[in-house]
Amino acid sequence: MTGKMFGVATIAALALGLPPALAQQGVKIGFVSTFSGPQAAIGEDMRRSVDLAVEHLGGKMAGKPIEIVYEDDQFKPDVGKQKSEKLVQQDKVNFVSGYIWSNVLLASLKTVTDEGDTILVGANAGPSQIAGELCNKNFFSTSWQNDQTPMAMGEYLNTKGVKSLYVVGPNYAAGKDMLAGVKRSYKGQIVGEDYTKWPDQLDFSAELTKIGAAKPGGIFIFYPGAHGVQFVKQWVQAGLNKTVPLYQVFSIDAITLPQQGADALGTLGAQEWVNDLPNQTNKKFVADYVAKYKTRPSFYGAQSYDAAMLINSAVTAVNGDLSKKDDMRKAMEKADFKSVRGNFKFGNNHVPIQNFYLQDVVKEGNDYVLKTVATIVENYQDRFHDRCPMKLGQ
Question: Residues 367-382: pLDDT tens digits?
Fold first, then answer.
């Protein structure tokens, strides 16, 4: 190190109240997502949003350079666990974030939070176990607990007077949570329920035939990414779009909509983040994302952007001293950062208490876009928080 470089580092350390050695270290964040295969578009949206957050932060947190280490879980729980182990044990990251899939997160959780004593900020997956009995002081979510969004959708269906529903989803942790969520709040009759093979099944003709025979008042689905594209397409091909309305969560978004196009018109869904939220942070995020990447961000990206900003709030609170993990956790519980959702607060299990909105697919010019119709519920807390023994501030 040259004398000039040492002088700059020393000045930075003194300004932050840190020893010079601490000031020279960066903030290293591991980010696990899917960057290959049919669901890679989701991971790329998350990566773009994190990169944009780093850009908005000027590349630094509390004066320390930010390094993001991206790892591809390949859509597989065992690979996700291996990559998580690498980040904690070899790369020695200060934080881990990301995780699209509930089964990947569940496989990786203890490796990061318990064995590695590393703070994990989940940017999408929200399995019920982690909100309840497996809640952890080192786990924070900037998304939701899986049941929350479908429960909000069920509340809307009640107000619309939908008398019967056929529910369909993939046979893995999140699929089970999503269908359980809508059934929990929906007061009408469930006339059919199917769980399809995950992730291999992309042909839903058998399920659609059963739905057609059941003649429900509506269909509820949870099929993220490429699976959502295929279900919507096949629903139209089967002619059911003319007879049975489709209601969805996480199946139509800014990533899938360019492929779904007119097939998705008029299809309603629930979401905790919507691109037209009027707060200034969200306006800047969306505008800068569109300017930089020439496409719209999805909720996956918005949650990942918030994850980066939540981590920044923790690093800032301890003036960059990453050894103060207790203080960082307490700072994160306060959620003292500007979220794209506006107001942001955590429950005792570190899952957000938040609003959920109704979205419709409309055509604007030559584009198909998601438009917010109404607020379904406000300050909605997941139902598993009372199974979590943690209390805020402890």
Answer: 999 999 999 999 999 9
